[in-house]
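Module 6 notes. Inverse folding takes a fixed backbone as the condition and produces residue identities as the prediction. Think of it as a translation problem where the source language is geometry and the target language is the twenty amino acids. Below is one complete input and output pair. Work through it position by position during the lab.
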């Protein structure tokens, strides 16, 4: 049953030929049908790579998406685009990398017109051999964070959150109905809220920096309540991931008690690849029903971590969460956006193989 001792977050580097095809499609020189055929071929190859690396799960690498969240949110009913804004990220060299954030305007009652990514998941399911197909979706909190309610039908934000949670609950049921057994909800807000500077900047933007994490726990729990018993739902938390850069820093201390102790999901994927994530002490709040997937291997740089160092860090984390409820993974996706992080395909595979080999040596 997922999550697995060796796991990964979901997105994977796009091969050069797929990037060229997307650019040609955007320029009007390639049909949608031909682009999908090329995506199909690339997904077949990336599924084989994951299985050959020894992973027990496989994703489609998010190869049909331009960005980890945008492609899903745009297909929810009642939501339209509301312009873009530049957001500064920073990389390990201290350089600023500009990301374009997409705002959303709520223009109608939020609903789910159809199960989103159903066709894509169906194709992935047909390609896997022994692996469990895994699909990642942006957390409902990411929709709420980007949403402008001023032009829509919601006078009460709580009513909006209720409708949004209901749409997600329907999405989870729809995915389970076509065979999904492993869903991950990606959420940057839980991690961002640990950063005092980020909380202060967000204070004037409709975010309650003191209680937002508690509000978000409540909505996410609404979304997963009543999910099919056979469906494993994990929540992945990170501090942003764009071209090897990030948007916030700070340990999980501010949110840990409410979030780690209050989420009614099955597993947490937690970013712990460097000092930006703080120490493991917030894990003392993790509820007994949760498995913790430690994101100790960075996807932001190509250098391989030491197996011995990874083992020591897992041992340290086991002071707070028993070893039999821990797993290992990269800290985030390799390509949360189509541009991807600053690694090669071979370096990406080496990172995944390192996760598999280290997990085998720890857990057998």
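Target side of the pair, the amino acids:
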């Amino acid at each position: 049953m997922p999550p697995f001792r060796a796991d990964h977050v979901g997105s994977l580097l796009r091969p050069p030929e797929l990037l060229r095809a997307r650019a040609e499609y955007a320029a009007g020189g390639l049909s949608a049908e031909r682009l999908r055929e090329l995506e199909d071929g690339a997904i077949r190859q990336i599924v084989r790579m994951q299985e050959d690396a020894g992973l027990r799960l496989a994703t489609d690498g998010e190869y049909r998406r331009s960005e980890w969240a945008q492609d899903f949110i745009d297909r929810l009913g009642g939501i339209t685009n509301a312009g873009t804004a530049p957001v500064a990220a920073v990389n390990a060299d201290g350089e600023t990398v500009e990301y374009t954030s997409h705002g959303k305007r709520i223009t109608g009652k939020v609903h789910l017109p159809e199960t989103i990514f159903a066709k894509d998941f169906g194709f992935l399911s047909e390609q896997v051999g022994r692996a469990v197909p895994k699909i990642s979706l942006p957390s409902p909190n990411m929709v709420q964070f980007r949403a402008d309610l001023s032009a829509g039908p919601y006078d009460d934000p709580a009513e909006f959150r209720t409708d949004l949670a209901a749409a997600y609950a329907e999405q989870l049921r729809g995915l389970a109905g076509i065979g999904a057994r492993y869903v991950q909800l990606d959420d940057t807000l839980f991690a961002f809220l640990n950063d005092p500077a980020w909380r202060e900047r967000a204070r004037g933007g409709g975010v309650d920096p003191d209680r937002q994490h508690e509000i978000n726990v409540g909505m996410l729990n609404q979304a997963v309540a009543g999910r099919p018993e056979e469906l494993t739902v994990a929540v992945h938390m990170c501090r942003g991931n764009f071209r090897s850069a990030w948007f916030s820093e700070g340990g999980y201390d501010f949110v840990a008690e409410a979030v780690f102790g209050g989420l009614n999901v099955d597993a947490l994927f937690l970013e712990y690849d460097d000092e930006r994530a703080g120490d493991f002490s917030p894990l003392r709040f993790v509820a007994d029903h949760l498995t913790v997937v430690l994101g100790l291997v960075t996807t932001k740089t190509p250098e391989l971590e030491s197996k011995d160092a990874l083992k020591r860090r897992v041992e340290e984390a086991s002071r707070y969460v028993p070893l039999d409820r821990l797993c290992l993974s990269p800290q985030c996706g390799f390509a949360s956006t189509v541009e991807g992080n600053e690694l090669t395909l071979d370096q990406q595979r080496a990172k995944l193989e390192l996760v598999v080999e280290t997990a085998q040596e720890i857990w057998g």
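Reference fact for the lab report: Residues 16-363 form a domain with the TIM Barrel fold (CATH 3.20.20.210).
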